[in-house]
Amino acid sequence: MDTERLRPATQPAAGAAPIDWETISETIRGALRTGSGPIDPDEMAGLAETLRGHIALLLIEARQRASQLGRGTIEAQQAAMRLGSIERQFRRPPASLPLCAHVQVQRLAQDCQWLLARHAVEARS
């Protein structure tokens, strides 16, 4: 997904932490590019921690917006399922094996990418 095309045209709501689009996008791109060579466990741990920080920030807004969806609607159920999946992945302890750590980082990057894209789309509406 090309998150650059979805850059929000608006600023976050008053009182909300600012979303640093550039930093989050660069972290996602870097995480998705990993794994073409030897997997560095320290790099994977650092990326996982950084992605968790971005996800924590984006989840706040995503939860708020999901709570505003009509109860029982398909959209509300889909959002709840995806957010639940992201939160479960977010809470998993860091993987200790290099390949498992790589897979975990890839998953966190995809979740972060989804949240960032959703933030951009919802910020425009």
Describe this entry's structure for a reader.
This protein is mainly α and 125 residues long. It is 68% helix and 0% strand. The chain contains four helices and no strands. The chain has helices at 21-33, 41-67, 74-91, 98-124. The two termini are 20 Å apart. Mean pLDDT is 83; it is low at 1-14.
User: Per DSSP, what share of the residues sits in E-state strands of 2 or more residues?
Assistant: under 5%
Mean pLDDT: 83
Oligomerization status of the protein chains? single chain
Overall form: globular
- The helix content is 55-70%
The poorly predicted ranges are: 1-14
Give the ordered list of helices and strands. Answer: HHHH
Number of helical elements: 4
Structural class, please? mainly alpha
Care to count the β-strands?
A: 0
Specify Rg, calculated over alpha carbons: 15 Å
The N- to C-terminal Cα distance equals: 20 Å
Main beta-sheet annotation: none
Keywords:
125 residues
What's the arrangement of secondary structure elements?
Layout: H1 21-33, H2 41-67, H3 74-91, H4 98-124
Short description:
By secondary structure, the chain is mainly α. It has helices at 21-33, 41-67, 74-91, 98-124.
